[in-house]
Each structure stands twice: as structure tokens, then as C-alpha cells.
Fold this sequence. Notes:
Layout: E1 16-17, H1 34-48, E2 53-56, H2 59-69, E3 78-81, H3 86-92, H4 97-108, E4 116-120, H5 137-143, E5 148-152, H6 162-166, E6 172-173, H7 182-188, E7 189-194, H8 199-203, E8 209-212, H9 217-223, H10 230-234, H11 243-251
Amino acid sequence: GNTLDKVGKREGQIFFQTWHGFPLKKMVADLENEKEKQTQLKAFLPRMMKWDYLLSSSSRNTRYITSAFQLEKNPNLKILEVGAPKNTYLIENNINSDEIERLHLKYFGTEPRGFKYVLYCPTWRQEKRDDLSALDLKKIINLLPINYHLIVKLHPNEAYLRRHYANLDSRIHCFYNDITDIQELYLLSETLITDYSSAMFDFAHTRKKIIVLQEDKQQYVQKVGWYFDLEDLTGLIGKSYSEEELVREIIEP
């Protein structure tokens, strides 16, 4: 993420910035909403000026983050196009049964029991909200076969919603972010449901199903926007679903 704003930089200190994801949604200087863009730029630029090295996963990624973060304003910054190190764990353990067993014990206190986990991982919204979706998650879990469980992974900015989602149903899980590594949840899950999050590009390494649930597509593109057309580049289609439609999409091979 970012260093705390109150953290300075002393002489000889090195800041090595590992950015956390490949962007679909526009960021900072590229935001569609001019007021929000200026607000974020004012806060972001002093952080960026501390960086000595910045990791990038590809030339396309470099193009987007150079524009978003106005990297040309830091002449001392070196961009290292060497990949996304966190995905090494994901790729190396994708079919590692010992690691999957360890993760079951960590998150559920049991060995694997044949359950299918669906990971719901939406990105956050600027405005504070009481629900992640207009969909009824209790209805969805009741429509799914009994061996399906839902894991709700909250963005850190929306961690205040944990109590609500942790108490919906015994087959709906919402863990404390402090003990949760999203890479581990990718390994546990059969399916990812997300909206505009870079999670989809990490999860793609598992070669498992991705469902793109976009309930506020028109408003989002006007306020935030995205760098490319998701369907054109990846074949993934972002759309709104009813509870019944989403259940059919989850169950379908």
C-alpha cells in the first residue's frame, strides 16, 4: 500500500514500493471525477516522492501506474519490471494438498471436508455503505447446494462491516483482516466473485472460475473509470445478477 504520511525519510534510507495489484479501475491522477482526482493527488504525490524503487508486473502495468501516480515527477525513481512477487506463493501452491490442508486448519479449524468455497471480494467505495451488494447473501447461500460456503473478504477500508457478514449464516464466513491473507483464500476457493478489483488478475493464476458482478457499472465509470474494456481484453463480462442467476453462474462448470 502506502507509507503513513507522518513517516518521513532520513538520509540513506531506501523506499522499495511493491504495488499490490494490476489495475482495471483508474487511480489517482487518472480518475474521471476531477474533484476526487485533485484530492487524491494532493495526498498521494508526497508519498510517491519518497520512493526509490517501484515494482511493476508488465509494460502495460508500467504504463498505467506511470500515468496514475505521475511518476515523472520523481526523477530518482527506478521502475523494476520483474513481476508480482506475491503471486509466486499462489502459483507454487495451487495444487499443494499439504498447504490446502494447513489453510483449512487455519481458517476453519478442521481438515478439508469436501466443501466448495466461493470467495466474494468486492472493492471499496468512497462513500460509506452498509452493504456490499443489493443481493441477499442469505438467499444465495440457501439456493446453493449444501456443500457450498461463501467467504466474504472485506477491503481494509470496509472492515467495519465484518460483524454484519460474520453473523448472517453458518455457511457465510467473514474473517478478521488482521489474520487474513487473500492469497490463501484464493487457494481455498473454487470461484471468485469480484467487481472492479485487481483480485481477478491474481486469481486468474489458479485457472479457476471468475464471476464479475458489477451492480453500479454506469455510476462507477463516470466517477472512477477504467483503463481498458474488460470483455475485449479478457473475455470476462461484468454485469448485474439476480440471486437465482448468480447461483446458476456459480454452479455451472
